[in-house]
Design goal:
By secondary structure, the chain is an alpha/beta fold. It is built from 12 helices and 13 strands. The protein has a domain at 7-157 and 193-218 and 280-294: NAD(P)-binding Rossmann-like Domain (Rossmann fold). The strands form 4 sheets. It has a 7-stranded parallel beta sheet with strand order 3-2-1-4-5-6-11, with helices on both faces. Helix 4 links the parallel strand 4 and strand 5 (115-121). The protein binds NADP nicotinamide-adenine-dinucleotide phosphate (NAP). NADP nicotinamide-adenine-dinucleotide phosphate binds at residues 11-12, 14-18, 37-38, 41, 58-60, 78-81, 83, 100, 119, 121, 136, 155, 157-158, 163-165.
Length: 324
C-alpha cells in the first residue's frame, strides 16, 4: 500500500457516495478539495478549513474546472447527471454525462493529474444494456482515455440510507402490503453495502496495483429483487405478498415506483429501465487486492434502517445492528 502525499480532489461530495467518502477521507486525516456546484451544501456540514477546501465549479462548464484540478494527484469522479423531476427533463442525461467526463479529463490532463478513480455501473455488456448502464460505461471509457491512470469500479446497487436503491426498496416494502410487481423483480443483482464501497474507493487510492484497471465490485449475496424485498420485510417483521404480472412496462413501473417513493422519476426511470439487466460480478480480482469482510445484505439493510432512525449522516458501527 502507498501513502498519498499529494492533493486529492473529490467530485460528487454533496452526493450519497461522495458525502460518505468525504467523511472517510477526512476521518483518515486527509485534506480534500471538493469540486461542487453549490458550496452552501457543504458549508453547513461542520468541516473545518484544515479538512476541506471548496472549489466551486460545474463539470458542464469546462472553464470553471482549471483551479479545481490544479496541483491534484488523485481525483475521484463520483458524478452522474440523472435526476430531473420528470422523465422528459431527464432524457438527455447521457449527453450531459459525456460532456462532463470530457471536460473533466481534458482539464485533468492539462493539470497533470496522475490518477482518476471512477465509480461506474456494473452490468452485462452488449446491445441489451439500459441507457443508464451504457452511459456509465461510456463515461468510464472517456475517463480512461486521459493521460493519468484511471481505475474504474463497476458497482451494483449500493445499499445505505439516503441512496436511491435503499430508499426505493424501503418505501415500496413499507408502504405496500400487497405488491403487484413487474417481471424484472426476478432479475438477479449483487448489492454492496455503502461502507464496503467506500472502503474499496479508499483502497484503490492506496493500492497502486489498481491503477489503470477496471474492476467489478459487489457484495457477498446474489439475490433477485424479489428476494431483496423479502429480506427487507423479514428484517422489519412485515408480512408482504408479492405478485408478478407480465404487463408492467418500464414506463409504467416508473410511474408505479414514483407514486410510492420520494425518489424523483428522473432517477427512477433510468434505474428501473436497467433492472432488466443482471448486475452480477463477472470477476472478483478486487477482493484479492483490497481484502475485507463484506457486509451481508441483511446486515446492510439493518444498518441502513438504524441510520434512518438516527437521522441522515449519523453513522453507526455495524456491531450496533440489533434488528435481526
Ligand atoms: N447510488 C448507487 O447505488 C450507485 C450504484 C452504482 C454506481 N453509482 C455511481 O456512483 C456515483 C455517485 O452516485 P450517487 O448515488 O452518490 O449520486 P448522487 O447522490 O445523485 O450525487 C451525484 C453528485 O454529482 C454531482 N453533480 C452532478 N452533476 C454535476 C456537475 N455538472 N458538476 C459537478 N457536480 C455534479 C451532484 O452535485 P449537486 O449536489 O450539485 O447536484 C452530486 O454531488 C455515480 O457515478 C453513480 O453512477 C452509484
Amino acid at each position: 500500500m502507498a501513502e498519498i502525499t499529494g492533493k486529492i480532489l473529490l467530485t460528487g461530495a454533496t452526493g450519497f457516495v461522495g458525502g460518505r467518502l468525504l467523511h472517510a477521507l477526512t476521518g483518515h486525516g486527509m485534506k480534500v478539495r471538493c469540486l461542487v456546484r453549490s458550496p452552501e451544501k457543504l458549508r453547513g456540514k461542520l468541516f473545518s478549513e484544515e479538512e476541506i477546501e471548496i472549489a466551486t465549479g460545474d463539470l458542464l462548464q469546462e472553464d470553471t474546472l482549471d483551479s479545481a484540478l490544479e496541483g491534484i494527484e488523485v481525483a475521484y469522479y463520483l458524478v452522474h447527471s440523472m435526476g430531473g423531476r420528470t422523465i422528459g427533463e431527464n432524457k438527455i442525461f447521457a449527453e450531459r454525462d459525456r460532456v462532463a467526463a470530457r471536460n473533466f479529463i481534458r482539464t485533468a490532463d492539462k493539470a497533470g493529474v496522475s490518477r482518476v478513480i471512477y465509480l461506474g455501473g456494473l452490468g452485462e455488456t452488449g446491445d441489451q444494456l439500459s441507457k443508464h448502464l451504457a452511459s456509465r460505461q461510456e463515461v468510464g471509457e472517456i475517463l480512461s482515455s486521459g493521460r493519468g491512470q484511471a481505475t474504474e469500479l463497476r458497482a451494483p446497487n449500493i445499499m445505505g440510507a439516503g441512496g436511491a436503491p435503499f430508499e426505493m426498496l424501503r418505501y415500496l416494502v413499507e408502504r405496500l402490503p400487497v405488491m403487484v410487481c413487474p417481471r424484472w423483480i426476478e432479475t438477479r443483482c449483487q448489492p454492496i453495502d455503502i461502507r464496503d464501497m467506500v472502503n474499496y474507493l479508499l483502497g484503490c487510492m492506496r493500492e497502486p496495483a489498481t491503477a489503470g484497471l477496471s474492476f467489478d465490485v459487489g457484495g457477498p449475496d446474489i439475490v433477485t429483487y424479489r428476494e431483496m424485498m423479502e429480506i427487507y420485510a423479514k428484517v422489519r417483521g412485515l408480512k408482504r405478498l408479492i405478485i408478478t404480472v407480465p404487463v408492467l412496462t418500464p414506463r409504467l413501473s416508473t410511474y408505479w415506483v414514483n407514486m410510492v417513493t420520494p425518489v424523483p422519476s428522473g432517477v427512477v426511470n433510468p434505474l428501473v429501465e436497467g433492472l432488466k439487466n443482471e448486475v452480477i460480478c463477472r470477476e472478483n480480482r478486487i477482493r484479492e487486492l483490497i481484502p475485507m469482510k463484506l457486509t451481508t445484505l441483511e446486515e446492510s439493510i439493518c444498518i441502513a434502517l438504524q441510520e434512518v432512525e438516527k437521522g441522515p449522516g449519523k453513522l453507526i458501527s455495524r456491531q450496533t445492528c440489533l434488528l435481526k
